[in-house]
Design brief:
- The protein is mainly α.
- It contains 3 helices and no strands.
- It has helices spanning 2-22, 30-63, 68-96.
- The longest helix has 34 residues, at 30-63.
- It starts with a helix and ends in a 27-residue tail after the last helix.
- The relative contact order is 0.14.
Length: 123
């Protein structure tokens, strides 16, 4: 009974940390931060669901003696439907989230539409 809980927790942490590490940044602020947090959480949940489905498939194949191919095909179909829906939602949310502003020099925040810079030493 402890194995599915550990699989879920480890996959969730691994998926969330990997997404936070490798996804490009979104706009800083409340909306971008919430979108980034939500996308990382959804990717963690998708990986957790993937791990749990693999675990249940292996357990199911240990019990079934005839029709293992049909059992595996059915389990994979359910896996792809559930995990694919969550990954699609995470992808849509990430693509709709605001991106950081890129200035003319190619640096984030290099050009400000508000006017001249107020930083000390800037001209």
């Amino acid at each position: 009974m402890l194995a599915p809980i550990l699989i879920f927790a480890l996959c969730f942490v691994g998926g969330t940390v990997a997404a936070a590490h490798w996804l490009p940044d979104l706009e800083p602020g409340r909306i971008g931060g919430l979108a980034f947090f939500t996308v990382c959480g959804l990717l963690g949940i998708a990986l957790s669901l993937f791990g749990l489905h693999i675990y249940s498939t292996v357990k199911e194949l240990d019990v079934v003696h005839f029709g293992k191919g049909l059992t595996l095909a059915g389990e994979l179909e359910v896996l792809l439907k559930e995990v694919g829906a969550i990954l699609g939602l995470a992808g849509i949310l990430y693509l709709l989230a605001p991106r950081p502003a890129v200035g003319t020099a190619g640096q984030v925040g290099a050009a400000s539409p508000a006017g001249p810079s107020t930083q000390p030493g800037a001209r």
